[in-house]
Request: fold
Amino acid sequence: MNRVLVANRGEIAVRVIRACKSLGLETVAVFSEADRGSLHARLADRALCIGPARAAESYLDVNAVVTAAKGSGCDAVHPGYGFLAENPILAETCLGHGLTFVGPSAEVIRLMGDKVAARRFVTKLGVPVVSGSEEPMQSAGEVMAVAAGTEYPLLLKAAAGGGGRGMRVVRSAAEIPAAFEQARAEAQAAFGDGRLYVERYLARVRHVEVQVLADDHGACLHLGERDCSLQRRHQKLLEEAPCEALSETLRREILEAATAIAREAGYRNAGTVEFLVDPDRGRYYFLEMNTRIQVEHPVTEMVTGLDLVAAQLRIAAGEPLAVRQSDVRVRGHAIECRINAEAPEADFRPSPGTLSAWRMPEGEGIRVDTHCYLGYAVPPFYDSLLAKLIVSAPGRAEALGRLRRALDTFVAQGVSTTIPFHRRIVDDPAFVAGDVHTRWIEDTFGRATLR
Amino acid sequence: MPIEREDLKELLEAVAASGMEEFVLETAELTVRLRKEAVPPGDGTVAAGGGSRPATERDRGTARPVAAPPPERATDGLVAVTAPMIGTFYRAPAPGAAPFVEIGTEVAPDDTVCIVEVMKLMNGVRAGCRGRVAKICVENATLVEYGQTLVLIEPMP
Reply:
């Protein structure tokens, strides 16, 4: 492997280019017309315009990406996250053109991308899933029949889903018909697949996920867990490692379940197995497996000292993992805040614009992953992530102190950002005590209190 | 297509002698923009830059400051035919076949002037206007970016 095409934009493209450079690999960036001159395009050894601003005609165009890779002499493609990262067709097309896809096989992407199939797969391995329908629901009537045997609230969920789209919470039978139609229409529009299934909705649970790494030589290990309970509309806002709410027993069970799933699926490269966890009852339920590098991977890097993106590239190149499970040590605590160009006071409305001021915090235990700079114009076409602020310290309390100071010195003007919102979270007594759940942000910072 | 010092000199002279007020040349390596100000004849400005930036470079306040025209219109009435997608540029329908156009060929709007190949799919690129081919900006069988200027056409009524 000599030259890698980075099939993404924004901070993750910058992150992948950095990892490539650290391994002595050449890089080719691709960009849309809206991203001309952006940081990832300038950092790469070569940059190619692959289409207009609309992602469907640029970053989501498999043919354009593969043509750019072949035409520029690349031998590998790193998809980052989002866009084509979990598109099995890109993995297949790369393979067909002699390009190494930095990720798992198309078969595994397909298996885990189908939520119904993935549930069935992990159930066979004895991993608990949230009770619900095995088969996709054909009608609202079918949902009602399933609902009759269980308790409310229920969750209607797209089989092809992700990112909170195609999801509806149902609190009574009367709500089912409307919710079913809405969720189905949303799933159809977002994923081209209107299949829904229904499951019990767990109200006060944590989102805990396990980072796994697997190579071509039979090694499959975990790098500990992350707590991503702080979400708004199923979008993560703040992530931590480790999850302090877990007992040692529960943690071990979850980590073992995650590695078993990856191993049995024939997983290769970096992946994340997500669970809903009820620490009080000592219960956990498989949610899904993401077959890519995640936004929040830096918190794992900070507590393990391992470079996950470099590991991805090495695995893809066929190298065996340099660490064994017994070498993996989780040290200290790390927290990541997603700094988005959004207006928290206006229901987190996206806020594109030009950065008229931009100063990032610095110091020990502080890391910022970003593609932004003073004068950068945040385009309105893509996701609103500006930067990831990551802090690490020997313990959670110290990490929180460091995070407060870092947020206080983070200056971003010209767009609205989530910085002030994070600052409020970090001061909240419940958050400081670690007493949060996946609905905590919505419950605590309802619309009225955000103003 | 590498541009030599001699070429630039020749270009300057030709532009100076012509009635053109502005002239832009784009190649894979650089952009040359010549513009006459209200100054003595022959005094043009040469600006080179942009690396392999195609004609669609637009200053969004973030991009590198490379002045270039929008894709539809080059300058002095020359119309740029740009790549509709990233791919490999071919001048002829098949290896060894005659090129679609040469400099001076008269074209109708629907005439194919070149091909951009993406994953074995040949996409014919049309002239888009009636005119005469003034310049072929890209070497045969090279990778072109989305929006890159491929051919310049001098429109005719």
Observations:
- The mean pLDDT of chain A is 94.
- Residues 210 and 225 of chain A are 4 Å apart (CA to CA).
- Chain A has three domains: 3-102, 131-200, 206-450.
